[in-house]
Design brief:
Chains A, B, C, D, E, F, G, H, I, J: It is an enzyme of class 5 (isomerase). Chains A, B, C, D, E, F, G, H, I, J: InterPro entries: Dimeric_a/b-barrel (IPR011008), MLI_dom (IPR026029), Muconolactone_d_Isoase (IPR003464). Chains A, B, C, D, E, F, G, H, I, J: Pathway: Aromatic compound metabolism; beta-ketoadipate pathway; 5-oxo-4,5-dihydro-2-furylacetate from catechol: step 3/3. The structure is a homodecamer of 96-residue chains. Chain A is an alpha+beta fold. Chain A has one domain: Dimeric alpha+beta barrel (Alpha-Beta Plaits, 2-Layer Sandwich), CATH 3.30.70. Chain A contains 2 helices and 4 strands, in the order E-H-E-E-H-E. Chain A has a 4-stranded antiparallel sheet with strand order 2-3-1-4.
Chain lengths: 96, 96, 96, 96, 96, 96, 96, 96, 96, 96
Amino acid sequence: MLFHVEMDVRIPYSLSAEEVDALKQAERVRAMELQRSGAWRHLWRVAGRYANVSIFDVSGPPELHDILSRLPLFPFMEIRVTPLCRHPSSIRDDDQ
Amino acid sequence: MLFHVEMDVRIPYSLSAEEVDALKQAERVRAMELQRSGAWRHLWRVAGRYANVSIFDVSGPPELHDILSRLPLFPFMEIRVTPLCRHPSSIRDDDQ
Amino acid sequence: MLFHVEMDVRIPYSLSAEEVDALKQAERVRAMELQRSGAWRHLWRVAGRYANVSIFDVSGPPELHDILSRLPLFPFMEIRVTPLCRHPSSIRDDDQ
Amino acid sequence: MLFHVEMDVRIPYSLSAEEVDALKQAERVRAMELQRSGAWRHLWRVAGRYANVSIFDVSGPPELHDILSRLPLFPFMEIRVTPLCRHPSSIRDDDQ
Amino acid sequence: MLFHVEMDVRIPYSLSAEEVDALKQAERVRAMELQRSGAWRHLWRVAGRYANVSIFDVSGPPELHDILSRLPLFPFMEIRVTPLCRHPSSIRDDDQ
Amino acid sequence: MLFHVEMDVRIPYSLSAEEVDALKQAERVRAMELQRSGAWRHLWRVAGRYANVSIFDVSGPPELHDILSRLPLFPFMEIRVTPLCRHPSSIRDDDQ
Amino acid sequence: MLFHVEMDVRIPYSLSAEEVDALKQAERVRAMELQRSGAWRHLWRVAGRYANVSIFDVSGPPELHDILSRLPLFPFMEIRVTPLCRHPSSIRDDDQ
Amino acid sequence: MLFHVEMDVRIPYSLSAEEVDALKQAERVRAMELQRSGAWRHLWRVAGRYANVSIFDVSGPPELHDILSRLPLFPFMEIRVTPLCRHPSSIRDDDQ
Amino acid sequence: MLFHVEMDVRIPYSLSAEEVDALKQAERVRAMELQRSGAWRHLWRVAGRYANVSIFDVSGPPELHDILSRLPLFPFMEIRVTPLCRHPSSIRDDDQ
Amino acid sequence: MLFHVEMDVRIPYSLSAEEVDALKQAERVRAMELQRSGAWRHLWRVAGRYANVSIFDVSGPPELHDILSRLPLFPFMEIRVTPLCRHPSSIRDDDQ
């Protein structure tokens, strides 16, 4: 099932450039794994902001929380979750 | 290029059931046309609200405005537009 | 799976007392059915407001939307949905 | 009587990992005690956020404040309290 | 126990002057009864606004809701409830 | 004359426990003095938050500012002031 | 003593042009009287909005409420009141 | 001097199509006159909303208010005004 | 021309008492100069908050920005600017 | 195509004056380059705040994000992006 997730990243200035780079690299690796597994179905950058809009396809809120709370940047993100479903005017048979 | 669009629909109680049905049917027909043409790339219902989250793929803000402002329910919608772009951690080469 | 749902009811003054009573009675019957079926697991009144806080246990966002959007008072409600999951400090094995 | 309590946790980055772990462990022990005593009737994790939604069953605002203000993570929590009561459409005789 | 209650009144323009007068008069009578009974412990007008700040002393959220939801002006009020308790720096022994 | 004052306290984590204790103790002594003098007519704790709701009875905004700005915790408080007056439905002859 | 008052006017479209003109004319007459008496010390229009920023010099919240609540446009105004006092860096001896 | 003005238009549903058309046509004529005179220096449509972002070049707040408050759609607009000035990093010598 | 300016001051706790005193003293000197020159026409303290409400009389937004951005406390202030003009119901011939 | 961009700058107090000066100088150089290239079409200072209002003319959200996210002050800015298009009442044939 689908969840719309908006993530705003605010890394504190006290972290060193090395720590930030390591976090971003780890986040990138994890985001790619989750895209390949199909759980992170869409991932877009919000133009002009250190933020993304994502669509997750997971088995439910527990799996979603498990994924999000283990992201390397989770401690530095403000996250808003919105459950989605198929729209009655969609031309697709499922929630794609 | 991609735009994230959230639409909240608030139809005034003064409209008759026939007017509302006609508006919804016209909206549905138009939404399907735009999905088939590729401009309305994704359309999801927000669970529990008369609202949707959509992704539009258009040539720019003018085409986006032209499409949205001609939707039959446009006078009754609160709309928020956010420009998107490819995320550097996306596993895709384009903004899909 | 669980969803936290807050509903604020605002019935327009233009409805007659009969229409309001019929709506409230239909809402009440439906709410009781859904509680008995287990889908509407908890239903509490917010003290001092025409509003409730509810916990729904459904198969996913589609079933939740199906239930909420068919409530008799749906056109007059402002609804906020929050997906929940088991808390790691819960003394229960499931999400109860 | 029942109170709906939402807690958002924001632990400052300046705390050491050991301090954070000790706080979380103490919080967990206390949360379990309070659930067993019946005062913390429900405890759910909000999916995707370091936050919970809880239902407390206490003798009144004084006991509620006493409990919340002594939680180990209290200095790091943003808390919103909403008093609840039995809903007239509830199928239960009490406020469960 | 004590609850802090803020009430903002917005009477729709469609009501006749007679209806408004009758509502205000009924509200006044009821407010005085509740003050005399001790349930509505304090009642102040907010300077410059059709609003009040009140302190209620009731047996719990159910009695508070019962009182507020039966006020003649309830359908036209926006209400915010905040549970209070004795402050540790109070010079009084109870929550007065 | 009466002023409704809400105070939210946020003490920065960088203060030592000794500094915090000294501040709180000084605040407590001053709050008691002001209650005894009659200027701080009511003082209640907001359940679940490090905040209070107070009623001040002072000669005007200058005295109110003088009192509030000299509170030991003033640099760490977010304060909202609302002027009050006697409510026309009050059963008292003055603004009590 | 001084109070800063912001007033936003929203006259409902259902009023006739004659009613609106009569209200505005009555408001104007009353505003001038209050300026001449010294109670309404300053009155400025907010550029681009049907709103004003005012400074009242009154004996306290009761007189302020009495004045504001009797303004002809009071039922159609959103009002925010802020108590002021002399600034310690003012070059004047009083609160002018 | 320059002012940044955002206008959101909300025409009430109770107006007839003829009234709305006449208002929009009058607004259009006036907007063009003001652009030609140089007072309305820039006028852009906000994509997806019945709103515009404008830059006015006027002699001061009085002229700005005079212009805005006489626009045919003024009674139906929510307006926000922000004064601008030349940016120190601008490559232009004036505020263009 | 007139501008309504609200300034909220938030000095970070990391500044030493000497730095804060020097800043406040410099701010005070500058505020008095600007009042004497006529540019800072009114300056009032907001009761209960480290904030002021001011009226500036300047030649336009550039002079206003020049004045405000050079205030010693500018880096620590949250500022909101609102352009004002003479109110049609003012008893004065100018914008005083 | 055009995008309306608002930037609020908040440089943390922990940066040294040298670091801040270097950042501002680098920002200034880059802003001038982008204005000369035509991408940063307009740049205005918001009077009284460390903020600007800008109009960018770019090939789409990707180029806009590329430009904004490489600005030297980007880590210290709060940015809001609004896509614009030609207004139907504009006297110009394009979106100027």
